[in-house]
Structure formats: structure tokens, C-alpha cells
Amino acid sequence: MSMGLVTIFPVDGLPEITAGAELAGLIADAGPRLADGDILVITSKIVSKAEGRVVQVDREQAIDAESVRVVARRGPTRIVETRHGLVLAAAGVDASNTPPGTVVLLPEDPDGSARRLRKALMDRLGVRIGVLITDTLGRPWRAGQTDAAIGAAGVAPLRDYRGTPDTFGVALEVSVAAVADELAGAADLVKGKAAGIPVAVVRGLADLVTEADGPGAQALIRPAAEDMFRYGSADVLAARRTVRDFTGDPVDPAAVTRAVAAAITAPAPHHSTPWRFAVLESAAARTALLDDMLAAWIADLRGDGFTEDQIARRVRRGVPLRRAPLLIVPCLYAEAAHRYPDDRRNAAEREMFLVAMGAAVQNLLVALAVEGLGSCWVSSTMFCRPVVTKALGLPPGWEPMGAVGVGHPAAPAPDRPPRDPSAFTVTR
Ligand SMILES: Cc1cc2nc3c(=O)[nH]c(=O)nc-3n(C[C@H](O)[C@H](O)[C@H](O)COP(=O)(O)O)c2cc1C
User: Fold this and answer.
1) pTM: predicted TM-score of the whole model, two decimal places
2) Residue 3: pLDDT band by 50, 70, 90 thresholds?
3) Residue with CA closest to ligand 1 atom 19
4) How far is 385 from 401, CA to CA, in rounded Å?
């Protein structure tokens, strides 16, 4: 790799870009002559404008339309995931530097835009260059914004150093440089909004320019399965869904321990800690429990007078727990409950502990979802507590509160039905 001088120069003299503008021609005419190995870094705003992505709609509606997921929200500010997979403020919808009443959307397909612009410039100028399309992003744990590549063609977006030795000869384990973002940030030093210069050229890093268009900036989007910060503060609760089908993959016991740790942060009456959990890791324990419960359920149904056919149909509902590779039986341990001389207050006291149990189980399920685990909270153990107590050898005072099947979801959860908070609320 060459380690020579790198220069970054602005391409000034571009006219105001409007829909249909032929960017390649305008850039070729405006800038200093592009040379082999140059990397052209262009602000997405003018790509959007040239592609007619200026629309006359309300900004909030435009953000809704461009978003697939709200990651975080505070007041009117929304951090969302766009259709492209980018996570950024306001879906990249921009109301600045555009006529009042209009907003600029990100390019429909920034990698496609980069490829087209690259081809047009290379055809016109006969040089091999790379093209990056950038947008300005904030970063979750860092103040200020910097530019990042949202489209790329002919530039290797990532440089993988994994396996290569460090200065002490030890193999690097995680180093993958996001060179396309580094180039975007560097180019912003000479272009930038304030300077009003939307295009810059980075010269001296020809090693990063590839013959093929390459994977594009899509390669910079971290796959959901590798994303440790998948859920933001706005969508973490919605991440929990009842999952009744699981893959055969085992559940990491450490993830369950972390979820139990989250569960036991729930609110509870009298500063008590009325939650206990039986974790059934072994198939033998799960099967023994479910078989005993099934027998108890069938006995109940026979007692109700159902026919054997009807019973067979009903007990099929017990299947979700059978499919789960791990079960957790949440138990209420209500010894801290106060005792009153009357039923009314005793009943209220009991309800306090029950709702505290619900809060803990909700914490458990949400924490499992954050770990990428699906869960279903099924009521059945509540209907045959003595059977469960015996099958699991539960300590005295542990009252089973259903059972939670845990595993890796076999399929993504369906969309959540929309619910209007006002239909659930009275305001006085
Ligand atoms: C106390 C309780 C008991 C439940 N029992 C069952 C059950 O026996 N079988 C089942 O399939 N789902 C059971 N569920 C899950 C609900 O069906 C599920 O929460 C509901 O369909 C809403 O879907 P969601 O959890 O994805 O929002 C139970 C939920 C709660 C809170």
C-alpha cells in the first residue's frame, strides 16, 4: 500500500442543482481535471436534488414514509431506521437549502446513484475513479456530527485488518477500518454545508479505488444479528412479541441469567422481592413437567365432561412450550404480604403482589427480546400448581405463575396491530 501524500480539494463553481441536472457533466466541467485513482466525494443532497427527490410534503409525513423503525425519540426528534437500513435522525429528510414547503429525501438507492455517476464520469473523462455519496450523521455516544458514506462505487468501503499482525506481531482480531466513512469525514473538511461546496476530490489513495463497483456502502450497514445495540429506547418494548415457534438452536444460559437479572429490578410492594424463577435447561425436566401437566389438564377436562375427541383437540394448545428449547417457570413468593383481619384488604394485598409479578415477567420477556430470544408466556402452570410444585421440587412458598418458553424465533414476528392510546385512556 502506498503511504504518500493525500490531498483533498473542493470542487467549486457548481450551479444550484435542480431535478434532471446532469451531475457528471456539471462536475466534469466545474472541477479540476479528475485523474486515475481519484475519489469523488459528493453530498447526497445534490444527488437527491438531481434525482428529483425534492417533495412538497409535510416534513413529519416525509419522515414517516422513509422510516421502517423508530429507534429513539425525544420530543420532536426522531432517530429512525430508513428503508436503506441507515439509522439516522429524521430519516435523512432535510428541510434546509430547499424552497420553503419542500423537503429533500435521501436518494432512493444511494449505491445505485454512485454507480451511475461513476460510470458517467469514467465514460466522459476516461479515468478510473471511485465515487462516494455522503450524508451527515450524529453518533450515539459522541458529540457532534460527521459525514459518512451512504453510497459507494469503485471504493472498497471496508479495509479488513483482521488476522494481520499489529506492531508487536500479534494478530489483530476486530480491526476493520470503515474507510468509506473516513473518506467522507475527511472530504467534509473542505466541502461542508457552511462552505456551500457539495463535492470534493480525495487524491493520493488510489489503492482504495477498485476496478469493479464493489459492494457499495450497503456493506457498512451492520447486520441486525451482529448489532449489540439493535433496539433503541423507543422500540425496545415493541421488540417483545409472543413467539410460539423456535429454531432448534440452544439458548445461552448466560443470556437467561441476564434476563432474570433484569426481571428482578421490577417494582414490588413493601420493598419486597417477591419473584423466583425455575429455569428448566434439561429436556428431561421439561418433558417430565409438561407430561405431568398434560395428565392434570386431561383429568380436568374429563371432569368437565368433554369427549376424548374434544379433549385431544384442546390439549394440542399445549404445544408451544413443547417446542421451546428452554422453559422458565416464574414463581410468586409472597411471604412479605401483610395479613389483614378482613378479606377485602387481604385480596388487595394479594393483587399487589400479583401485579408486581407481572412487572417482573414483562422485564424478563423484554430482556430476552433484547438478547435476540423469543418467548411465550403461557398460563398453564397456574391451573395445576401442586402438580408443578411436585414435578419441579419447588421450595415452599413458590407459586408458579405460568411458564415462559424461550428460544430463537423460527420466523420474524408479524406486524403489531395498531392501537390508539386514546382508546385506552381517560384524561381528567
Ligand atoms: C398471563 C398470560 C397468560 C398467557 N397465556 C397464554 C397461553 O396459555 N397460551 C398462549 O399461546 N399464549 C398465552 N399468552 C400470550 C398472549 O396470547 C399474547 O401475549 C397475546 O396474544 C398478545 O401477543 P404479543 O405478546 O405478541 O403482544 C399469555 C399471556 C399472558 C400475559
Assistant:
1) 0.80
2) low
3) 242
4) 9
